[in-house]
Each structure stands twice: as C-alpha cells, then as structure tokens.
Design brief:
The chain is an alpha/beta fold. It is built from twelve helices and twelve strands. The protein binds serine. Serine binds next to loops.
Length: 316
C-alpha cells in the first residue's frame, strides 16, 4: 500500500505553503491536507483534503490508518497574541493536540514534525545569539505551551523511540497566506500596506529586533530536517534555526529602497511585551552542524521577493 504524508493545520500560514511544496515533491495524491476550517479552492482541488479537528483523535486515527500515513506535520496551534486572549483553549489545542498525536505516533509508527518557537525563551534568556541550550523561562502562554511541548517530544523519543523532529521557528514571512494572531505578524502586514497605502502603523516599536525568516527557508528547514538521517537528528526537543534579525525601522528602511515614499509610524500595543521577552538573534550552529541547515534569504533578498510577489498578486 502506498505511503502518505498528513498535514494538520493545512490552512495556516505555514501549512498552506508546506502542503503545496510537499505535493510538488511527493505527488499531489500522496499528501493529505486537514484543517478544522473549510478548505480553500486551491487546497480542495490540489489533492486530498479532510476537514477535521486535531482533538478529534478517533477521526484522526481513521485518516492515518486508511491512508497508511507515515509522516505527520502537526501545525494546528494558537499563536502568541491569540493565546494570551484565550489561555485555556490555547493550552488545550497546543498541548492536547501534541500529546494525542505523540501517542498516535507511538502506536502507528509515523514520523512526526512539530513546530516550536523562539517564544520558548523568556526575559532571563541571553538575548543576543541565543544558544541552543540556555535558560528557557517563557512568560507567554504560547511560550509555555511550546516549552512543555519540547519536553514531551524529547520524552516520547527517549522513552518510546518516537521519531519526532522539531524546529524553533523565528517570525515567518511569506506572501501566500496571512499569519494569524502572532507577534511577528507585522513583518508580513507591512508589505501589503506598503504597496496599498504607502504607510504602515507598526504595533512594535522602532527598535524591537526579532529573529525572522523567509518562508522559502522555513520550508527548506522543515523538509530538510524531516528528510535527515535519524542519526543526524541529535536534538529531539527542538532546534534553533536562524537567517536574519531586524527591527521594524530596519525593515521600513529596506522597503524604502523600493518604495521611496513609504512611511512607517509606531503605536506599540500589548504585543510589544511579548516581543520584549524574546531573543533579538539566535545561534543556530547546532542545526547547521547536525543536519546541514543553511539559509538563502537575508533582509534585502526577502524584501525584494516579497514586494515583487505581492505586486504580481495585486495585478492578477
Ligand atoms: N511567530 C510567532 C508569534 O509571533 C512566534 O513563534 O506568535
């Protein structure tokens, strides 16, 4: 029987692009997309789609068994800003979703990808070039759920041999799907507004540096880690990865090179606190040494590519 790949949370910022990429690599019919929401026309027409809640484990198990699923990407989660508004449902989705899927991975023997985040770090973490192994005392609900998740991943690997792999994503920037409910979302919104209105009001202050990554690199990291020989995946909690760090002001200056009239203003809101608790830059030398992670996009290259693609989307 042919083997399939399952993506849970396929309508999200990462999921929608990951499904496309996995379908291109593995063939459309071998990648099953699932989400709690109705599928977009592209998801529905591009290959198999099942509408399901990740917490509905009997239904999830049925999909896994019926399709001989051998790899699962669990991307259903509430991000930092939304999680602060909905503490209990964030914990339930982020934790129970992972625990149920880890249990299933143990029984059904599939390989599991689960994303962690720079949000596992907190105010007491060294902020510059944050090491792979350091203080993790997160101060957000989202960060607490990611840290607990990392511990569970390592536990299931050590106790039960579950082949679970994870990355601590920085803020992710892509043009295909809007992010939802995160602190780093400004770095996507700014491009749409720059092209539409030539202005942007940032909810983070001018000098708030955060680690960021272009979606192209994030997808390569994700698929690269999943494809790596198991012996090279030495960290089974979650890997630091990095490509660029910038402030809203630096991003605005880069956009101005393409749109000279562009103006940014600042009105920090509650998300400023979450950003202030996170690192400014990340040391990812362990991921580079262990499984050969490399990035392609820096601030200049990412900005040019984002503006070109969003412009094309507006024109069509
Ligand atoms: N991008 C996420 C957020 O802002 C961090 O992992 O919530």
């Amino acid at each position: 029987m042919k083997e399939s790949i399952l993506v849970i949370g396929a309508k999200g910022q990462i999921g929608s692009e990951l499904v496309e990429e996995l379908r291109r690599i593995n063939g459309s019919s071998n990648v099953i997309a699932t989400d709690i929401k109705e599928p977009s026309p592209e998801l529905r027409d591009g290959g198999p789609f099942v509408q399901l809640d990740v917490l509905d484990f009997p239904k999830l198990l049925e999909v896994v068994k019926k399709n001989n699923v051998k790899q699962v990407y669990l991307l259903a989660a509430l991000l930092s800003a939304t999680a602060e508004q909905k503490i209990k449902s964030a914990w339930k989705l982020n934790m129970e979703g992972l625990l149920g899927t880890l249990e299933m991975a143990k029984e059904e023997k599939f390989k599991l990808f689960w994303p962690s985040s720079i949000a596992v770090f907190g105010p007491s973490t060294p902020k510059v070039n944050t090491p792979q192994f350091t203080i993790t005392e997160p101060s957000t609900v989202y960060g607490i759920s990611k840290l607990a998740g990392e511990r569970w991943c390592e536990y299931y690997f050590q106790k039960f041999g579950v082949d679970v792999r994870s990355i601590r994503y920085p803020g992710l920037i892509g043009y295909k799907t809007e992010p939802g409910g995160g602190t780093t979302d400004y770095a996507v919104h700014i491009f749409h507004e720059a092209l539409k209105t030539k202005t942007y009001e940032s909810f983070l202050s001018a000098n708030t540096a955060l680690p960021m990554m272009y979606m192209h690199d994030a997808l390569n990291a994700t698929i690269g880690l999943m494809d790596a020989d198991p012996s090279r995946v030495k960290v089974r909690s979650s890997y630091n990865i990095a490509s660029m760090s910038f402030t809203p002001q630096q991003l605005a200056d880069e956009i101005c090179k393409h749109i000279p009239e562009f103006k940014i203003t600042y009105k920090p809101d509650v998300r400023q606190q979450y950003a202030d608790s996170w690192p400014q830059s990340i040391d990812d030398s362990v991921a580079r040494a262990d499984w050969g992670w490399q990035h392609e996009y820096d601030l200049a290259k990412m900005t040019k590519d984002m503006l070109e693609h969003i412009q094309q989307m507006v024109e069509h």
